[in-house]
From TrEMBL:
<protein>
    <recommendedName>
        <fullName>3-oxoacyl-[acyl-carrier-protein] reductase</fullName>
        <ecNumber>1.1.1.100</ecNumber>
    </recommendedName>
</protein>
<dbReference type="Pfam" id="PF00106">
    <property type="entry name" value="adh_short"/>
</dbReference>
<dbReference type="Pfam" id="PF13561">
    <property type="entry name" value="adh_short_C2"/>
</dbReference>
<dbReference type="InterPro" id="IPR036291">
    <property type="entry name" value="NAD(P)-bd_dom_sf"/>
</dbReference>
<comment type="pathway">
    <text>Lipid metabolism; fatty acid biosynthesis.</text>
</comment>
<comment type="similarity">
    <text>Belongs to the short-chain dehydrogenases/reductases (SDR) family.</text>
</comment>
<dbReference type="InterPro" id="IPR050259">
    <property type="entry name" value="SDR"/>
</dbReference>
<dbReference type="GO" id="GO:0004316">
    <property type="term" value="F:3-oxoacyl-[acyl-carrier-protein] reductase (NADPH) activity"/>
</dbReference>
<dbReference type="InterPro" id="IPR002347">
    <property type="entry name" value="SDR_fam"/>
</dbReference>
Length: 317
C-alpha cells in the first residue's frame, strides 16, 4: 500500500492574473523557485519566508501531516509576499513523496527550480506522527525510554533495550540520507538549478561531541552531511553550491513540540542554552543563513557544514 499524499491547489497571489499560464511566465522571467521539505512550519517555514523576502517567487512545500499549517502557510505567503506555492503532503521516508515534490515542479513551474532545501525531519513519538506504513510505532513506554536517553548522560540507547532499533535506524536513514540523495538527483535535472541545502543537527560530524541520544537520527544526518561534500565536488562545475546547516537550539518545530510535552526535556534544553548565550534561537535566523547561501552572494560557499547555533558546538553535550 502506498503512502497517501495530498497536493493542495496552487495559491495564486492577488496581484497576479488568474489566467492560465500568466504566473508561470512571471516565474520563468524574473523569479526563483525553491523546493523545501518540511516547509510549512517551524524552521522550514522560516526558511521559506526568508527566501520569499529575498526574491524567490514560487515554492513547492513538503509537509508530513499538519494540513492546517500547510493551508495557513500558503495563504500567508500569497498575502505577504505575493508568491505562488504548492503543498505536497507525505513522509519523505517514502521515495514516492520525494518524486511527487519534483512532479509538482514540472507541472506548476515548467520544471524550473533554483534551490532544494531538505529540512524535513521529526522526532517519532514527540514532534509528529508519520503516515508512512514502515515507520516505527512509538508507544508511551518507548517515549519514556527515549526521554531518559536524551536527558541523562549516564543512560545509553543500549540500556533502554529498544526492540525497534533496526526499524528506527532504517527509518531515519530514509528520511534524511536517502530522501536527500534522491532529491538532489531530481533537483539538478531542473532548469536554472543552483543551490542545495541540508538541515542537519548537532553532534553528527567530528567537529562536535557526539550526542548519545541522537544515535538513530544522527546516523541519518551524518550520512546527509557526507553527501553534501560529495555533491559539492560533483556539481561544482555546474555552478551549484551545496551546504549543510547545523542549527542549535531553535524555538520551533520538533524542539518546541517536545519541550511542551516534557518538563524534563524543557529543563535539559534550557540547561544547554545556558551553556552558550542563554537564549533559544528564533527560526528566522536559520532562514536568513539559508537565504544567503541560496543567493549569488553565497555561491562561492560550498561543501561546508555550518553551525548556526550560538556557539553550542564549542560546549560539547
Amino acid at each position: 500500500m502506498r503512502t497517501s499524499h495530498h497536493v493542495f491547489p496552487t495559491v495564486i497571489p492577488k496581484q497576479c492574473s488568474r489566467k492560465a499560464g500568466t504566473f508561470r511566465v512571471m516565474a520563468q522571467e524574473d523569479g526563483k523557485i525553491a523546493v523545501v521539505t518540511g516547509g510549512t512550519r517551524g524552521i522550514g517555514y522560516a526558511i521559506v519566508r526568508s527566501l520569499a523576502r529575498s526574491g524567490y517567487k514560487g515554492f513547492v512545500l513538503g509537509y508530513n501531516s499538519d494540513h492546517e499549517a500547510a493551508k495557513r502557510a500558503q495563504a500567508e505567503l500569497a498575502e505577504e509576499f505575493g508568491v505562488r506555492s504548492v503543498c505536497v503532503q507525505g513522509d519523505v521516508a517514502d521515495a514516492a513523496i520525494v518524486r511527487q515534490l519534483f512532479q509538482a515542479v514540472q507541472e506548476s513551474f515548467d520544471n524550473r527550480c533554483t534551490a532544494f532545501v531538505h529540512n524535513a525531519g521529526l522526532i517519532l513519538g514527540f514532534s509528529s506522527k508519520s503516515l508512512y506504513e514502515k515507520a516505527p510505532v512509538v508507544d508511551e513506554r518507548t517515549q519514556q525510554q527515549l526521554l531518559a536517553v536524551s536527558t541523562n548522560p549516564d543512560v545509553t540507547p543500549s540500556d533502554t533495550e529498544l526492540d525497534d532499533m533496526e526499524e528506527r535506524f532504517e527509518y531515519y536513514w530514509r528520511v534524511y540520507t536517502l530522501a536527500f540523495q534522491l532529491g538532489m538527483k531530481l533537483a539538478v535535472r531542473c532548469e536554472g538549478f543552483q543551490h542545495i541545502i541540508a538541515i542537519s543537527a548537532p553532534g553528527c560530524n567530528i567537529t562536535y561531541s557526539p550526542f548519545i541520544w541522537l544515535d538513530d537520527r544522527g546516523q541519518g544526518k551524518a550520512g546527509m552531511e557526507y553527501l553534501v561534500r560529495v555533491a559539492a565536488r560533483l556539481y561544482a562545475k555546474k555552478g551549484v553550491n551545496c551546504n549543510a546547516i547545523i542549527p542549535g537550539l531553535v524555538l520551533a518545530g520538533g524542539t518546541l513540540d517536545s519541550i511542551k510535552k516534557s518538563k524534563t526535556l524543557k529543563t535539559a534544553t534550557d540547561d544547554r542554552a545556558n551553556n552558550t548565550t542563554g537564549r533559544l534561537m528564533p527560526p528566522g535566523e536559520i532562514g536568513d543563513v539559508v537565504s544567503f547561501l541560496c543567493s549569488p552572494q553565497g555561491l562561492a560557499i560550498t561543501g561546508v557544514a555550518l553551525p548556526v547555533d550560538n556557539g553550542l558546538h564549542l560546549f560539547g553535550r
